[in-house]
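Per reviewer request, we include the raw input and output of the structure prediction for the construct analysed in the revised manuscript.
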Amino acid sequence: MFDRVVTALRSAGCVFAEDEARLLLAEASGPAQLAANVLRRVEGVPLEHILGWAEFAGLQVLVAPGVFVPRRRTGLLVAEALALLPDQPEPVIVVDLCCGSGAVAAAILHRATGVEMHAADIEPAAVQCARRNLEPLGGHVHAGDLFQALPRVLKGRVGVLVVNAPYVPTEAIPTMPPEARLHEPAASLDGGPDGLNFHRRVAAEAHEWLAPGGSVLIETSERQAAGTSGLLAQAGFQVNTVRSEELDGTVVIGTAVIATAVAGAAVTATVVAGTAADGAGGDWSGATPAREGCPGSA
């Protein structure tokens, strides 16, 4: 049975057919469900949507059809957020905007103490999924458009703001593999003409939500990093760009500075060795879910 599943998956273009076959066999309740799940996978349905969970940052995060699948590269966003937490007084308020399944927030809650977590998304399916992942951990999930979803009481109190907003340029959406463009909400992918629409909005509003010395962290692509960092610098943040080659991840960090220092806010760059996944450098054909090399990603 294992060999037959592997052959079917490999014929469909799954590079990691053996790994996927093991997961499908382990999760199936019987031969009929296995056959149905293999067929869905061959047709290009994300493996995570079939299994009902995604592996992310060492966790199994619940996902559902119609919900953005967390990417491996976003582990860099988690790592950089965790690195900032010791500098914040406890309990530190952390906000995860455009949270999708809540994967980033869940990873932070699993690794940090003294955190009051708030997450928000505009997609109803994502909000429902995030609540399943975060409420058992003590997190709070809100529905709405970016900052409009958050309780007003959080204004001026957020120590760390993590943002994985859509940043694929609109014209690049058709080049994405079917896994993403057919099975994930367009609203979770499309970042506007240059992919920076949401980054502009975050940069414009983040200051009023952050506590003094708080930071906003935005996942972006290597190609778009200069644009994202420029937006934060123009908004008065001290900016640092972190790049992980291992994960193929890029995160721009903006730190709120005191008013007298805003005019001279510096833009710096830090290259972090270590972490190859999907869709950097403007090549969106590989911007698949957590795995690489699955149907349509070649």
